[in-house]
Amino acid sequence: MKDGFIKVAAGVPEIALGDCAENAKRIIAMLKDMHSQGIKLATFTELGITGYTLEDLFLQQALLDASAKALNEVIAATVDIDTLVLVGVPVPVGCSLYNCAAVINRGKLLGLVPKTQMPTYSEFYEGRRFTSSPEEGQYVNYLGQSVWLGQGLFRCTEIPELVIGIELCEDAWVPCPPCIGLAQAGANIIFNLSCSNEVIGKSEYRRSLVKNLSGSLVSAYVYCSAGGGESTTDLVFSGHCMICENSAMLAEQRWSTGTFIAAEVDIQRLNTDRRRMSTFVADNSGKYRIISEFSLDVTETQLTRTFSRTPFVPSSKDNLDERCREIIHIQSAGLQRRLEAAHAQCAVIGLSGGLDSTLAYLVTVDAFKKLHYPLENIIAITMPCFGTTSRTKSNAQKMAEVIGTSFREIDIHAAVQQHFNDIGHDGVTTDITYENSQARMRTLILMNTANKCGGLVIGTGDLSELALGWATYNGDHMSMYAVNVGVPKTLVRYLVDYFASVSNEPLKSVLYDVLDTPVSPELLPPEENGDIAQRTEDIVGPYELHDFFMYYIMRCGFAPHKIYRIALITFEGKYSPETIKKWLNNFIRRFFTQQFKRSCLPDGPKVGSVAISPRGDWRMPSDALYAAWLSDLER
């Protein structure tokens, strides 16, 4: 359970309808298998002790006696099992019968949570037999002990931030499900014991329901529905089980009985997300209070869940194309509005032939087309100097010619050399002054050209560069509208690739060559063969690592040691542990020390859940210290 990860499971034993003793044996056998695999929280199906589709047999005393005896067997079997277990059972109390989830931990029955909503429509007739959960809970005598029956929460003694809530099947399908109150009262994992039959389209709706509930509640949601053993008379059941975390599906199965699904839920991340959201309203004043605490050994959870190497990039090709279209629309719409508000029909962009300037240029073209502005009013300027290679310069020119925008070449060698003379630089030493003088000269030309034509300078820098501070202050750091400011480097590549995929020749070949060009600011002289000598990722580190670090620091609030842990798993075989730690250390240092550049960023559109504008998502002092973060990395 280190770093907030806890392993949960949803199990679907084969149901023997009405044979409670056999059902108990199957639950116990599966539970032992779960325990051997490190499961800490486990749920079984609705009325799993008896079977759900017994209809009026639930009114038979013989069945109720057998179910109580079978539940006792399950409870006894958990004495040496380090798991919180939820089992579905009918519970008679006086003149009422409740459809309950029995909560069991280490040989003890901690509580009985009854179903609230009794479906009595279509194929369901629960209202004929069962009573809805009482508004006020009560202690009842069951299995020879006094036990709580009613709504409430269960909290882990050893891990107080782990709180679970329970609802049953139909409870989740109503306008105001119990899980809302449970989550507001502190539950971060919701379990649903269910027996939902199959009809065409129902599984898709069920899946959407569970994902949306977990997202709106900022919780994990473990849904466990009965399988083949329940299929009788007119109904078929698929054993649909799902484990979702804040709308992300971690595990799912259908049409499989006698098995279980498992996943590691990150409660630390869920709690962090809740703290981040001022609109997530905690409410401990209602009926949902802590009923009981349960005990678990605190052990390290062996992670089997995977983490994308590119968290900003969808894994599905169809989803990726749709994401690219959406991002381009956002970038273009933001620029359109700024052009209209500024009464500007001219845009000036430094087109280097590199990845970022290519994306900014293509977005600008898209905006001009939608505004019906002449494309020749886009002035693309290439400004060769000491590090410019023929490859990037040629690609910039070809791009402008193919698309039909204005193109200018302004050689800045002489201007920069004059500047060196003015400030007493020898023009030979390739220091930071040597590099930044070129970047600032280019910005000066772009700004004054924009003033001359009454236009706007379009910024090209991306989110990853700003997180690292890999920009020249008041050089490429500055513009009049920065269209790439919300796009991380790993996603920039996919966006340019998308543009290439929908373009005709010869633009397609130009864009693919841009994609094949090493990322570089081209501020140092090229190699003897004319190739780029200054490769950004050799200096600051691989962007796929930095985007990974950025996502989990900014979006998730993870501590560095936790990021390092999941990075080791994610990049195993590609980067050594030493390499990952080196660049994570570097990211932390640069992220803190370069905040002053982000504190005065130009406007630009927010694109995703991670944004770095000082006027919106990310606010921090420029002088914050990073010692605690580096210390945490060495834990």
Indicate the topology.
Layout: E1 5-12, H1 20-36, E2 41-43, H2 61-77, E3 84-93, E4 96-105, E5 108-114, E6 138-142, E7 145-149, E8 153-156, E9 163-168, H3 178-184, E10 189-194, H4 202-216, E11 220-225, E12 241-245, E13 248-253, E14 259-266, H5 267-276, E15 290-294, H6 317-341, E16 347-350, H7 355-371, E17 378-382, H8 390-403, E18 406-409, H9 413-423, H10 432-453, E19 456-459, H11 463-468, E20 481-482, H12 489-501, H13 507-516, H14 536-539, H15 543-555, H16 560-570, H17 577-593, H18 595-598, H19 627-633
Helix pairs in contact: 1-2, 6-7, 7-12, 8-13, 9-10, 12-13, 15-17, 16-17, 16-19
Give me some keywords for this one.
635 residues, alpha/beta, Nitrilase/N-carbamoyl-D-aminoacid amidohydrolase, Rossmann fold, seven-stranded mixed sheet, six-stranded mixed sheet, 19 helices, elongated
